[in-house]
Write a structure and sequence with these properties.
The protein is α+β, with helices and mostly antiparallel strands. The chain has 16 helices and 14 strands. It has a domain of 182 residues: Butyryl-CoA Dehydrogenase, subunit A, domain 3 (Up-down Bundle). Helix content is 47%, strand content 14%. The chain has a 6-stranded mixed β-sheet with strand order 2-1-10-11-7-6, with no helix packed on it. Helix 5 packs antiparallel against helix 8 and helix 10 packs antiparallel against helix 14. The longest helix is centred in the middle third of the chain and has 40 residues. The chain binds flavin-adenine dinucleotide. The site of flavin-adenine dinucleotide has 19 residues, from strand 7 and helix 14.
């Protein structure tokens, strides 16, 4: 059954996780002020699914059960599903900055594919197990945290070669009734206020590292789980109206010999499929990140336009201001278009689901990862220095300063100073505060650092197809009228070229 945001907040009371924030134990996550903005942001995904105007993008029919489920938990089957998911993520992130729950969707879709592939290769029964789990999660309308990024220790060493094996989560014991896992996931979005974690490998593994290729579901309050988190957003800060309402906590999640029954295990040592899970999750997630950051972009475009108006400028008359706004729009809709293309060119998976196109998903995420800094710059450019220089909100109610400040800090006469200041504070909150830095960092590293995207683009891009196009052109004489001699070995004639013999004279070992 679909929950409302209030139901979701209440549902957290059913759990008793071991959570620390800022050095103290949190007794009740649902009532903890420092986590409230994070819970409020996730709650948006619940409330919007119940609104008639959003039902179409925020809910979907799960074909394996026939149930109507929240879009954030749905397994995609068509390009339309992918497009609606993209729109849904943009919608909820436009409202909340980052609604976090799309990570649940991305992991469920990656595991759906990987379990089928593992069963096909190894004769296991992970997929059926996972389907049972999926239907329960959908029926209960849960939110799942993605515990993927390990602490990783020395980045130059593989998991099994670390001095401390606990910097990666791994299986320490295999029992008749389940497995025992141990280790640390370093960055888990919304960790304290999830219902369960989906543990997944964050990299490809070698056969020696088979114990690190583990995927399973763990309730947030399972014995042995500790969450050390930071506050969500800027709770309680008067200058941060937006981030005091909506934010995101991240947590280090420590698994201290946690028992997981087989029902909840979806991969246990199958290294090849572990690698597939990592990359397929990443593709789903990067596709979602595009929607999320487009939602953030909507906020910047709207705030920028309001700031310009409050400053008394007409975008139509001032070319440099219009250029900046057009550049901001170009960036946001440019990477979003990659998400649309990735939906349209989705790839059917043997499991029966659909993957967003990997090249477009990775290009879109790569674009936003670096252009987020330009987005901030452009918002600053059109807004002016007031964004970081204006007096604090306490002055708004100070009888000694309020009237004179209101008189001189207004811009356009028909727009009150209070409105101009409010938009300026929003721009500061989103781009120049600790939260502004946070939005940069999640864009740059969330879903993998840029190098990971570049590798995936290169791995999936059909370069050879393009080579063949050019070769056909050359061979048909379009470019050199048949006089061409190919430089590529084996490509200039049927038998291939003779490779020149190496020089017969001995090559000296040293150059003295
Ligand atoms: C706000 C936020 C929320 C997040 N939420 C989640 C979440 O919910 N779940 C989750 O699992 N993860 C989450 N992540 C983690 C994210 O996926 C990682 O930050 C990302 O994969 C990079 O890993 P890292 O932070 O450990 O950085 P590192 O891996 O240390 O990377 C730092 C730099 O070093 C480079 N580097 C790393 N290793 C090597 C190597 N061996 N050789 C050469 N260069 C290397 C990288 O390319 C990068 O440029 C989140 C991140 C952020 C910022």
């Amino acid at each position: 059954m679909l929950m409302s945001g209030a139901d979701y907040r209440d549902s957290l009371r059913r759990y008793n996780p071991r959570v620390f924030v800022d050095g103290r134990r949190v007794e009740s996550v649902a009532d903890e002020p420092s986590l409230a903005p994070g819970i409020a942001a996730v709650a948006v995904t619940y409330d919007f699914a119940l609104m008639p105007e959003h039902v179409q993008v925020m809910t979907a029919r799960q074909s394996t059960s026939g149930a109507t489920v929240n879009r954030m938990l749905h397994i995609n089957e068509t390009s339309t599903d992918l497009l609606y998911k993209l729109e849904a993520v943009r919608l909820v992130c436009r409202e909340s900055g980052c609604a976090q729950r799309y990570l649940s969707h991305d992991a469920l879709n990656g595991i759906f594919q990987a379990t089928k592939r593992t069963d096909d290769a190894h004769g296991t029964d992970y997929h059926q197990r996972f389907l049972t789990y999926l239907h329960r999660v959908q029926d209960e309308d849960l939110t799942l945290g993605v515990a993927m990024t390990d602490a990783k220790g020395d980045r130059s060493r593989r998991p099994g070669a670390q001095d401390n094996p606990d910097v990666y989560v791994h299986i320490t014991e295999r029992r008749a009734d389940g497995i025992v896992i141990r280790g640390t996931k370093a960055i888990v979005t919304g960790a304290p206020y999830m219902h369960e974690f989906l543990v997944m490998p964050c990299r490809t593994m070698t056969p020696e590292d088979a114990d690190f290729a583990v995927c399973c579901a763990v309730p947030i309050d399972a014995e042995g789980v500790t969450i050390v988190a930071r506050p969500a957003g800027r709770p309680g800060e008067a200058a941060a109206k937006f981030s005091a309402k909506y934010g995101q906590s991240t947590g280090v999640v420590i698994f201290d010999d946690v028992f997981v029954p087989w029902d909840s295990v979806f991969l246990a040592g199958e290294v090849e499929e572990g690698g597939f899970l990592t990359t397929s999750y990443a593709t789903h997630h990067r596709h979602s990140c595009i929607g999320a950051r487009a939602g953030f972009g909507d906020l910047l475009i709207g705030a920028g336009a309001m700031m310009i108006e409050a400053n008394g400028l007409d975008i139509g008359r001032h070319g440099h201001i219009r250029d900046a706004m057009v550049e901001l729009i170009k960036i946001v809709e440019g990477f979003f278009a990659c998400g649309v293309a990735a939906s349209v060119y989705g790839l059917k998976d043997p499991a029966g689901s659909i993957m967003p196109d990997a090249v477009f998903s990775n290009i879109g995420k790569l674009l936003l990862a670096t252009q987020i800094y330009d987005m901030h710059r452009l918002a600053h450019y059109v807004s002016g220095g007031l964004v970081v220089a204006l007096p604090g909100p306490e002055e708004d109610h100070n009888p000694e300063t309020q009237a004179s400040l209101a008189a001189v800090l207004a811009g356009r006469p028909d727009i009150p100073a209070s409105q101009r200041l409010e938009v300026a504070r929003l721009v500061e909150d989103l781009t120049a505060s600790s939260q502004g830095g946070w939005y940069s960092m999640i864009s740059l590293h969330g879903g993998g650092s840029p190098e990971a995207m570049k590798r995936e683009i290169w791995r999936n891009y059909p370069v050879q197809d393009k080579v063949e196009v050019v070769e056909r052109l050359l061979d048909r004489g379009v470019l050199d009228e048949g006089q061409r001699v190919s430089k590529q070995p084996g490509r200039c004639c049927v038998t291939g070229c003779d490779v020149p013999a190496p020089p017969s004279a001995p090559v000296p070992d040293t150059m003295e």
